Amino acid sequence: MHSSTSQEIDLLLEKAKSSGKTEDLAALWKAALELPQWHFITRQTANIEDRKPFVGVLDNKPWIFVFTDRQRAQEYARTITGGGFVDESGNVLVMSTDTPKAIDYLLALTSQGVYGVRFNELNGWFSPLQNLPAILQHVQRG
């Protein structure tokens, strides 16, 4: 099975942004869904068990931040000054989760009041979580 690369995702993102076409956005989602893992940033905590994927508030709405590769996750975490994402030795903690598990996690967050998902924040795309089931259906049908 073909696995998407960061570069492909960037190209698909540019295309979807410039064309605004549904099928270009669907291609982008498809590429993201085909990745073996999705990556989350998490704050440093005393107990590893307490670490949870970062949910940030933008426009007064809680969003879950997801990254298509570890490097992007680290880059974004470093932009948040005093966010607690970078440890004393300068490492960012990234949680990598198998994509099907990550999707289940995102779907479960809807009931916890999380509004949406933001992929590759800095240069990415986003969607309300309530649209996720329809996106999954649409992409998996295609």
Structure characteristics:
4-stranded mixed sheet; alpha+beta; 42% helix; two-stranded antiparallel ribbon; globular; 142 residues; 5 helices; Trna Endonuclease, Chain: A, domain 1; 20% strand
Summarize the structure.
The protein has 142 residues and is an alpha+beta fold. The chain has five helices and six strands.
What's the structural domain tally? 1
Shape: globular
Count of helical stretches:
5
Order of secondary-structure elements: HHEEEHEHEEH
Strand tally is 6
CATH class group: Alpha Beta
Superfamily (CATH H level) name: Uncharacterised protein PF11572, DUF3234
CATH architecture type: 3-Layer(aba) Sandwich
* Distance between the amino and carboxyl termini: 16 Å
Task: Kindly estimate the percentage of residues that lie in beta strands according to DSSP.
Answer: 15-25%
Mean model confidence by pLDDT: 92
Helix/strand-derived category reads: alpha+beta
Which sheet architecture does the biggest sheet show?
Answer: 4 strands, mixed
Please bin the fraction of helical residues. 40-55%
Radius of gyration: 15 Å
Low-confidence stretches: none
Main-sheet strand order equals 2-3-5-6
CATH topology: Trna Endonuclease, Chain: A, domain 1
Protein name: SseB family protein
Organism: Hymenobacter endophyticus
